[in-house]
Structures are given as C-alpha cells and as structure tokens.
C-alpha cells in the first residue's frame, strides 16, 4: 500500500508537471496563428502629468485574446515569443497597431496623446527594427514625436555598441526613449550619460512602499533629482494610493502611472474616461 501510495503521488506530481508543460507547448503552438488570426489587442494605461493634472501620454500594453483561454496578460506569452523568436513579428504588430491608433486619434480631442510601446532587448537586436518603425509611422501619417519606446536596462549590458546605435537612430527620427523598470536592473549609470534617454520610469517596487519606507523614499527622491539634473523626465510606475501620488507631486516627479489613475483599458474606454474628465484628478477610471 505504501508503495502504491508512493507511486500515485509520484504519478500525480509528474502529471502536474506535464500539464504545465503541455499548456506551454499548446500556447507556443497557438502563438503561430495569433498574428494571422488577429488575436492581439493593445490596452492603454494613461500617465498623469503631475504639474497640471493632464493626460498627454499613454502606455500601450499587449493582450492576447486567446480563443479558448480568454484574455492573456503579456507575462503568459511574451517570454514564449522571445524564446521562439516570434517576438520580432509581435513587436512589429505592436508598433503598427500603436501607429494606427495614433492615426485614428487625429482630428479628435485625443490628437495630442503620445503612445509608448514596450520593446524587448531581442527586438532591439534586429537591424531592421528602425526601418520598420519609420515605415509604420509613415504609413499612418504619424509624427515620430507621438511615439515613445520603452526599454529596460538589460539593453545596456550586452551588445552595447549596437544598441547605442539603434537608440541614436530612433532618437534621430524624433522618437522619445524611456527606460522602463528603472532601478532594478544590473546596468551601470554610465548609460544615462552615453545614451539619449528622455524618460526614466521608476520601478513599481520602489513606489509601493514609498510613503512608509525611508529607504524607498530616499531612492525615489534621489532618482528624481538625478534625472532632472540630467534633463530627463521621470514617471513613477505602479501608483496605487493618494499618499503615493502626493509624495510624488511633492517631490516634483513629472508623471504618475498606476491603478489609482487607471488600469490598462481598451482605447474606447480610455476615450470615455478622458471625455468624462475621470482621469484628470486621480480618480480611478476602472476600479
Ligand atoms: P511594464 O512595461 O513595466 O508595464 C507595467 C505593468 O504593470 C503592466 O502589466 C501594468 O498592467 C502593470 N501595472 C500598471 N499599474 C499598476 C499598478 O498600479 N499596480 C500593479 N500591481 N501593476 C500595475 P502588464 O500589462 O501585465 O505587462 C507586463 C509587462 O509585459 C510589461 O511591464 C512589459 O515589460 C511587458 N509588455 C507589455 N506589453 C508589451 C509589448 O507590447 N511588447 C513587449 N515586448 N513587452 C510588453
Ligand atoms: Mg513599460
Ligand atoms: Mg515598467
Ligand atoms: Mg515591468
């Protein structure tokens, strides 16, 4: 009996592992058709300008409307797409979708919105990235200054020369560059000197406890000062409370992004929230 029990436990365990692996393989296979079936969508999360309470930029965050599993967050499939190399095609889709959205907002009250897209380091490796972005802008008649690219510090660790060249080309086009998740990477600060950075986004992990943890408050203030002294603007990520918002406003952070202001939402919902003035005061739009 003990042996049976042991074997059952063992079987149960392997079945559990297999299930996870099966799901991974399945998602990986489904990714093949996701683009052709038009299953990706962009949600938009507004960034609140703390100097005037206005929204003039939004971050585009990808979602996968999976035919059986429902709406999937990027954490469920971006790593898979990076492993299989499909991330490059997905990235192109993201840039084009963001440009199409910018084109749709022309001549509307939302015409001045800037859209930030996330690019992984792997996407930056691709030599044709800059041309494809230039083409997407041109194809949609969108000004490069309406587009922002968010990259994490990983790009300053490897392939530095190539990445510097890519960023310079993007910057020359007139695209704004933001460093995402700032403060949790392993890179040195030298890149702030060597790379053409417009914005730093302070990682959520510093903001979460900023009102009651001395060290997080010190780091956040220091990052804001460092950036400002270098002529770089600062966005705080993951702002969830009024207390955090007040702290950031008090310390001259330029922008705040987080569930307090709004979750990432479909463009139609964003338009409605902006129209109703729901996002200008820090009232949650979709809570
Ligand atoms: P990120 O660029 O740092 O995006 C911020 C993430 O934090 C988003 O998760 C957002 O929903 C979440 N967030 C925003 N405000 C709050 C808050 O107040 N509290 C909490 N707890 N979370 C908040 P999401 O949409 O699941 O995206 C996760 C990551 O996936 C992104 O992190 C980004 O690195 C990546 N990602 C998203 N879209 C794309 C894309 O189009 N391409 C690539 N390569 N990566 C993407
Ligand atoms: Mg981002
Ligand atoms: Mg981030
Ligand atoms: Mg992140």
TrEMBL record:
Entry keyword Transmembrane: yes
Residue ranges constituting the EAL domain according to the UniProt record: 24-278
Keywords: c-di-GMP, Coiled coil, Membrane, Transmembrane, Transmembrane helix
Origin: domain of life: Bacteria
Single GO MF annotation: cyclic-guanylate-specific phosphodiesterase activity
GO terms under cellular component: membrane
Compartments where found: Membrane
GO annotation, biological process: signal transduction
UniProt KW Signal keyword: no
Protein name as it appears in the record: cyclic-guanylate-specific phosphodiesterase
Source species: Marinobacter persicus
Parent sequence residues shown: 467 to 753 of 753
